[in-house]
From TrEMBL:
The keyword Membrane does not apply. Keywords: NAD, Oxidoreductase. Its EC number is 1.1.1.1. CDD domains: PPD-like. Belongs to the iron-containing alcohol dehydrogenase family. One of its GO terms (molecular function) is metal ion binding. Residues 8-169 form the Alcohol dehydrogenase iron-type/glycerol dehydrogenase GldA domain. Residues 182-358 form the Fe-containing alcohol dehydrogenase-like C-terminal domain. This is Alcohol dehydrogenase.
Amino acid sequence: MEFTFQIPTKIIVGEDCVKKNASLLSSFGKRAVIVKSGSAGKNGALSDLCAALEQEDVCYHVCENVPPNPSPEDVAKLLGYAPNFDFIVTVGGGSAMDAAKGVAVLATNDMPAEGLYEKSYQNAPLPVIAIPTTCGTGSEVTAVSVLTVGETKKSFAKPELFPAVALLDAKYLKTLPDHVMIDTALDALAHCVEGYLIFESWATQMLAEEAFRNFAQYKEALKACKFTPEQLQLMLYTSTLGGIVISMAGTSAVHTIGYPLTVQKDIPHGRACALTLGRYVEFVYDANKEKVDKLCSLLQVDGVQGFIGMIDEILGEKPRVTKEELERFTEISAADAIRKKNAKPVTKADIMKIYLASLLG
């Protein structure tokens, strides 16, 4: 067994942790950039952050709202080259946090947006502090940013893109729309399932199995869309566990074949992954029976079919797609999905079968 476990992000969990750690924010400098989602002003996170910065006499610039599934060009428009700032604070879900990592790079490097995908940067990115307000992305503890490029999504990753600090306060989840709560919670589940099945280490196994136990405690709440404060805390915690898992293990073909569903059909990322997750697990079962059986047991479902049924029940109605669209999505995603680390080798024909069983079965 060989693996590297590097999670340099300082994770702080608890109610009002943003306000309580104002001095920690100011330790990064006196000039901040805030990169946020549109919901940051509704859930109280932005006002808490601004109050904490003002308490410490930190000047800040608030960028325009990050659009869903931003492109490198969208990221460049948020701030551009701005070397006079000291640090970035990002408030929101995956789109905001992934965009913030790009903003951190472009603020210190005078280069076009496509330069984000260079192998190295001349100047180190600005440090990033992450305040997640959904329960799925895990980007607050990864060194990866995933942006929309053409017909799909493309990631860039550097160790220096790990956020320096993640501040986790579950009260910011209270205003999430039901469908966002479901989609992001399933995204976290996908992270844990994929990493668990494709990577061998005591760390990923321990963290993913903890996440499965947690998910079992709130899966019925997801179906009913009624959550206690304790369940919200558990969901946010589980999302971060999922981020650590994929930080070590990466993701599988599930994520890759989900990207065209998001870019071409405007299906939210977490939902796009969840739509094919069950059939992917079914596809790899013969290659990893012990782990699949274990995850089903921890999730308290009856085998693979119970796993598929659980996801279908939480998702509800599936999107309308045609066979011709799925053939095109297979063409778009196949090469990258095949190159991914998977629980067993996957072919272009396998991808089409997973699409068909998941969306037209």
